[in-house]
Amino acid sequence: MTKTKILSTLVLILICCSYNYKKTDHENPKPNGIWKQIGYGNIIEVKDSTIKVYDIAKQNCDLSYEEEILDFGKIKSWTKDTLTIQHGIDNWLFTRLDKLPELCNTPVKELKNDPKHNFNVFWNTFNEHYSSFEIKGIDWEKVYETYNSKITSNTTELELYMIFQEMITLLDDGHVKMEVPESIEEQYNDKVKQKKEKYSKLDEFELHEEIAKLYVDSLRNYNAGMIRYGLVNKNVGYIQINSMLMLADYNLQRDLNLMNFFNQYWEVAEKSKDEIQRQEEVDGIHKILNSIIKELKDARSYILDLRFNGGGKDGVALAILNHFSNTEKVAFTKKARLGSGFTKDQEIHIFPNNQNFTGNVYLLTSGRTASASEILVLASMQNPNFTRIGSTTEGIFSSTLDKKLPNGWEYELSNEVYQDLKGNNYENIGISPDFPLEYSTDKDIFFDQLFDDLKNKKDKAIELAIKLENKKTK
């Protein structure tokens, strides 16, 4: 063989080897394996498109559920040792484990329904993950001492549930709750006489509509009144946003009443994987606001009414704000409890939408403004065109950390801290308005106040917004 042929053969071999190497390198292997979440007390086992999620606490490791990955989150990136999963606005971080901890492989079946064991798992989960003991002034060790002595192997399910409810009440946190079998819930309700609320959900919904009708001549709505909108005085846009949920466009009839809409909406929504459904909610609010801003082209300012909005999806809250912003910026930071400290701060950004409004915005809030709607209020503090009117928000920002006891009872707790760019944490405090109104924090009294205003054909918050806007435009 000549030197030229040898050289050509070597070049060909190198090219082939290079091609095969690049092809193999390009085909990233699936992130199958076992991963421990940084914070949150979860271990996951990934196998192709499915995931097993283990709740791990000091004395316990149980398989919580097994589902498709998109019901847990969207795999964003991974390396040999790290994994990032997108869950709504969050990027959850994981590190690889060689195998499941021994505790996960050897569940003690005889302890599954043991009252003391379930109590210890419950207490320890809060001890390791709850983020607001200090801000609430709660000594969790003393809580253990108080209730541990009340539990024996003979403690009934009802007695155990009553103890858990007392502990939850101490925390006074709208994001802490427990779900038990219906039979136990009924026994509990019979035993504990709950205060009967004066106003039903339907009463509230009708009140929202009557307030809007008082100021908007041709009131229109999306999704059975989740969004109501129109013009006030021909040049002030009014958008009443009653939920950060149920805003996806599922092509339902526009004139459905609330109950029919609710049933038909969730019949469609539950067919989507959780992470996809979150995106459908975000896409839905973008479509709605694109249409409203285009339709209300004569608006020189906007009133965004969040006084009746109890929350939903953080991603929806940020999507709304993106329509009232003109520059990309950091909105706030969030972190999760990790041992005696917290995870690294995650920056959450505002990304202006193409169809946006950057004039004066009057944001109406109350003590009923909670959870994801407070996320919008928090993020809006970075926008100088926003003015807050009303009363202090509820003060429950953290997303809920979902857990399950060995006996199968499911519960939620707050394990995160949201902070503004000055490092202020509004958990348990709420965000106060620029122009305060004396709204009661008691739900029934608050609605009494609004109904009284309606009788006099006025709404203090909307009136004040109009007055402030008139001053600015003179």
| Main sheet properties | 7 strands, antiparallel
According to CATH, what is the class of the largest domain?
Alpha Beta
CATH superfamily of the largest domain: 2-enoyl-CoA Hydratase, Chain A, domain 1
**CATH architecture descriptor text of the largest domain:** Alpha-Beta Complex
The helix fraction, in percent, is: 25-40%
Please give the number of β-strands: 21
Distance linking N and C termini: 94 Å
What do we call the CATH topology of the largest domain? Answer: 2-enoyl-CoA Hydratase, Chain A, domain 1
Rg (C-alpha, Å): 26 Å
Strand order of the largest sheet: 4-3-2-1-7-6-5
Helical/strand content category: alpha+beta
What general form does the structure show? globular
Percent in strands? 15-25%
**Uncertain parts:** 1-27
Q: How do the strands and helices of this protein lay out in sequence?
A:
Layout: H1 3-26, E1 33-37, E2 42-47, E3 50-57, E4 60-68, E5 74-78, E6 82-87, E7 90-97, H2 102-105, H3 115-129, H4 133-136, H5 140-148, H6 157-171, E8 177-179, H7 182-191, H8 201-215, E9 220-222, E10 227-232, E11 236-241, H9 258-269, H10 274-295, E12 301-305, H11 314-322, E13 329-338, E14 341-342, E15 346-350, E16 360-365, H12 372-380, E17 386-390, E18 400-404, E19 410-414, E20 416-419, E21 435-436, H13 443-455, H14 460-473
Helix pairs in contact: 3-5, 6-7, 8-13, 10-11, 11-12
